[in-house]
Design a protein that fits this description.
- The protein contains 2 helices and 8 strands, in the order E-H-E-E-E-H-E-E-E-E.
- It is mainly beta.
- It has a single domain, classed as Alpha-Beta Plaits.
- The strands form 2 sheets. It has a 6-stranded antiparallel beta sheet. The chain has a two-stranded antiparallel sheet with strand order 7-8.
- The protein is globular.
């Protein structure tokens, strides 16, 4: 079992539905802990690895970042998972996903800011900072 906080990008683009629903407005209606639905979009013309994020009301709020989508998309197919809304900070939304059963837990907020966990330390989220992924398997040939 493991949990991840994932960024949701593209929240300022309108949806392609008839009403051109507003993704940011939908995120503003979400409360931390609300369920979200992650849906792979293999026929997406811009990215075959795209993973769309939908609120509990079925309104698309954006996409997982292109860097995370391939790995998360594969895991969505192979493992049991639960995802929840975590926070909206600036131009990004955040969701929390847990693989392997059970419900994800929300990190404790620090002075109203999104908190991330990096190498066992808690730190306030800085949208301009660089947060590398933990070391993982080698990709590519």
């Amino acid at each position: 079992m493991d949990e991840l906080t994932l960024s949701v990008v593209g929240i300022d683009f309108p949806n392609a539905d008839r009403s051109r629903s507003n993704r940011r407005m939908e995120l503003l209606l979400c409360a931390p802990g609300d369920p979200v639905d992650l849906r792979r979009e293999p026929k997406n013309p811009h990215d075959a690895n795209a993973v769309a994020v939908f609120s509990a009301r079925g309104v698309q709020v954006g996409y997982l970042s292109a860097e995370r989508a391939p790995l998360i998309g594969r895991r969505l197919q192979q493992e049991e998972h639960v995802a929840i809304f975590q926070a909206l900070v600036g131009s990004l939304g955040y969701v929390r996903i847990r693989f392997g059963g059970g419900a994800p837990t929300l990190p404790d907020p620090v002075e109203g800011e999104l908190e991330i966990r990096s190498r066992g330390r808690a730190a306030p989220f800085d949208p301009d900072a660089f947060y590398p992924d933990p070391e993982g398997p080698e990709w590519g040939a």
